[in-house]
């Protein structure tokens, strides 16, 4: 174990591990939920034709990405607040 790993290991207590695991468990439940899957599927159905299989990243992708991030963040935040 090197010095960085050792100092990181000292920072993590069993309580913080349990809290981290609980948060990850909640996030996993949210993204595996049918409601979230439908949200993603509907978004994909709305925009999939905008994308091309090329190396170039179009400027039109940016607003689509921003909309997706906003949609996902809102959904996750609402679900976490309900728990």
From TrEMBL:
Q: Which residues cross the membrane?
A: none
Superkingdom is Eukaryota
Which Gene Ontology BP terms does the record give? Answer: maintenance of protein location in nucleus
What protein name does the entry list? ADP-ribosylation factor-like protein 2-binding protein
Keywords attached to this entry: Cell projection, Cilium, Cytoplasm, Cytoskeleton, Mitochondrion, Nucleus
Q: Which organism is it from?
A: Microcebus murinus (Gray mouse lemur)
Q: Where is the BART domain positioned along the sequence?
A: 19-82
Q: Which Pfam families match?
A: ARL2_Bind_BART
User: What role does this protein play?
Assistant: Together with ARL2, plays a role in the nuclear translocation, retention and transcriptional activity of STAT3. May play a role as an effector of ARL2.
By its UniProt entry, which Gene3D superfamilies does this protein fall under?
ADP-ribosylation factor-like 2-binding protein, domain (1.20.1520.10)
Cytoplasm listed as a keyword: yes
Task: Specify whether Hydrolase is a keyword of the entry.
Answer: no
InterPro entries given in the database record: ARL2BP, BART_dom, BART_sf
Q: Which GO terms describe its cellular component?
A: centrosome; cilium; mitochondrial intermembrane space; nucleus
Q: Where in the cell is it found?
A: Cytoplasm, Cytoskeleton, Cilium basal body; Cytoplasm, Cytoskeleton, Microtubule organizing center, Centrosome; Cytoplasm; Nucleus
Q: Record's family?
A: Belongs to the ARL2BP family.
């Amino acid at each position: 174990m090197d010095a960085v790993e050792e100092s990181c290991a000292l920072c993590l207590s069993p309580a913080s591990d349990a809290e981290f695991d609980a948060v990850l468990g909640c996030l996993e439940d949210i993204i595996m939920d049918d409601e979230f899957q439908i949200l993603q599927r509907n978004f994909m159905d709305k925009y999939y034709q905008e994308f091309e299989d090329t190396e170039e990243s179009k400027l039109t992708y940016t607003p689509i990405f921003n909309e997706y991030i906003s949609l996902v963040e809102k959904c996750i935040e609402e679900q976490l607040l309900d728990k």
